[in-house]
Amino acid sequence: MAFGKYPERTVIVSLGTFKTFSDIVGQHVIRISNAVKSRQALSDRLRNAGCAVLTEGRSDWHNEGDFDAAVHDPDIPKDKKYVPLKLFRREAKFDRGATYTRKIWIQLRNETDHSLELRHPKWKPIPSGLHANVLSGTMQIKIGGSWCPEKIGVDRLHLPAGELCKLWAEPSEEYPIEQVQRQCQSEAPLGFLEIRVNDAEVDVAV
Fold it and tell me: Is 79 within a domain?
């Protein structure tokens, strides 16, 4: 309502992960975090909206408060570490004409406010999930409305803040494709994707 009535005087700020709603699609949303770059973006936007922002000659606002500590992913128990990537979508596909006929396509989103280097993805099964194999060189990044590189993937990429990448895993032959599709459409976890993010090994729930 505020944005509809006063678009030039309204600042939209996001903290953590949220589900996009149609009213703000296409609008500039500032992702707030502890990073100085993020704080500066909010300061600039407030100033553009006509607020009396006084930051000249001051630096305490670069580190006062802890935005990151206020974020807790409900999918991660409180005793677990924060995961910079999160599952955005998963889908099973079957193509008789492809070299690899059975694929589970996995889309991931960068949940941080900085670029991440991704490499060496591997599949980690769980008791109630599926056994699968992630081949090298299947990662793609979404640029605009296209996945790049087209048709083929790479074994490492840099994923900008808030952007999507995808890769695929080949499920074991022991599972009928109908079962794989059914499990992908459910909310039950299939396994973990172990992936090298910058200099650390990270497990992403799939």
Answer: no
